[in-house]
Structure formats: C-alpha cells, structure tokens
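Support request from a user on the community tier.

User writes: "When I paste my structure tokens into the form, the page sometimes reloads and wipes my input. The last time it worked, I copied everything first. Here is what I submitted, just in case something in the input itself triggers the reload:"
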C-alpha cells in the first residue's frame, strides 16, 4: 500500500512539509510513503490544454495520485483559504469527470499555520474541494497553530497533542485505504 503526500506549500522550509513527514513517520510498517515533489511544475489549469496530450507537470501529478492508494495533504492557509497552486492541482486531478485520478481516492487533510488557528479554514476548504473532485475524504484534521514554535531543530513535531491528532487522522486514512483495497479485491473475485 502506498500513501502519497502532497504539501500545499512550495517553500523550502515549509512547516506543512514537516507536518506531512511527521504523518509519514506514523504510518504502519507495511505502508509506503512517497512525497510528491512536482507541485510547482503543475501547469495552470486550462481546459484547452486538457486534451489527449496532458502537459507534463499535470501528467506527473495525475500519475502520482493514480498510483497511490491514498493521499495525505498538508495545507497552509493563504488569506483564509488554500494556496492557489494546491487548488490548481486539485482541479487537474478532478478531470476527466468521473475518471479523474482523484475519483474514489481515500484522502486526509492536515494543516499548519503560523497564526493561532492552525489553518482551520483552509483545511475546511480543501476537504470541500477534494470531495467535489471525487475523493473519499476521511474525518478529522490536525490544526497546528504557531507552527514556527512546534518543531525542534531536527524538524520533529514537539507538540504531543498535535502528534496524537495526527496519529488518529493517519490511522483513519489507512483504514479507509484498506477498505477500498478489500472492496477492489472482492469485486475482482466476483468477476
Ligand atoms: C500570501 C500569504 C497569506 C497568508 N495568509 C494567512 C492566513 O490567512 N492565516 C494564517 O494563519 N496564516 C497566513 N499566512 C501565514 C502562513 O501561515 C505561514 O506563512 C506558514 O508558515 C505557511 O506555511 P508553510 O510554512 O508550510 O509554508 C499567510 C502567508 C502568506 C504567504
């Protein structure tokens, strides 16, 4: 089983990327993790470009999502919403309608901000837009406020409460992915 991690921040020292890696460290031993590193290269969505030849950045995003059993997305909050490049990626992954990479994909949302509220609004917006794109978004979030004070020098999360919330969200995501896997196996056996 493979979980794909996507950080909505393009920043080299992103707290959201650190939070994502902390989530990866909580995955069971039999689950692999891959960090998607091509978000910045995803072209701006243009329906005219979304034909037979998908542009390379968007194609690599779609392939990464399609090849994963579940996705874990960490989002910053930009002006009370999700960063534009992250929304752009969800738009690419949502198409074609009913056949997009996101269709039926178990997904979980976490987030960090340097403000007090831990990106709660952007997480709510991301959950909404992922669900609209067809993902099966699991319950739960991790709202890591004052993110600049929550990691040690090695980049590890120091807040035990947030660590506990993260463990719950990651466990829900893995459970959802295992359910999907079992359903696919049952459908294949019935054929
Ligand atoms: C354009 C912009 C808008 C922002 N708007 C918000 C906001 O609405 N709420 C908030 O808590 N932080 C806001 N911030 C601060 C981010 O929480 C902070 O930059 C955070 O570290 C971004 O996540 P990252 O560390 O993963 O890059 C904003 C930052 C930028 C660059």
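"...and here is what came back when it finally went through:"
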């Amino acid at each position: 089983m493979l979980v794909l991690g996507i950080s909505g921040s393009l920043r080299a020292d992103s707290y959201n990327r650190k939070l994502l890696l902390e989530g990866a460290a909580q995955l069971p031993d039999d689950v692999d993790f891959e960090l998607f590193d091509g978000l910045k290269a995803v072209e701006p969505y243009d329906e005219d470009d979304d034909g037979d030849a998908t542009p390379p950045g968007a194609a690599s995003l779609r392939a990464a999502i399609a090849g994963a059993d579940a996705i874990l997305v960490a989002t910053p909050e930009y002006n009370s919403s999700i960063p534009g490049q992250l929304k752009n990626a969800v738009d690419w992954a949502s198409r074609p309608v009913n056949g997009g990479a996101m269709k039926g994909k178990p997904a979980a949302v976490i987030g960090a901000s340097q403000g007090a509220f831990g990106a709660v609004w952007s997480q709510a917006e991301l959950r909404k837009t992922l669900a609209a794109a067809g993902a099966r978004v699991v319950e739960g979030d991790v709202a890591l406020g004052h993110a600049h004070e929550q990691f040690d020098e090695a980049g590890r999360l120091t807040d035990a409460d947030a660590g506990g919330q993260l463990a719950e969200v990651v466990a829900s995501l893995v459970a959802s992915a295992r359910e999907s896997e079992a359903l696919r196996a049952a459908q294949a056996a019935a054929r």
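Agent notes: The reload is a front-end session timeout and is unrelated to the input. The chain has a mean pLDDT of 96. The chain has five helices and six strands. Escalated to web team.
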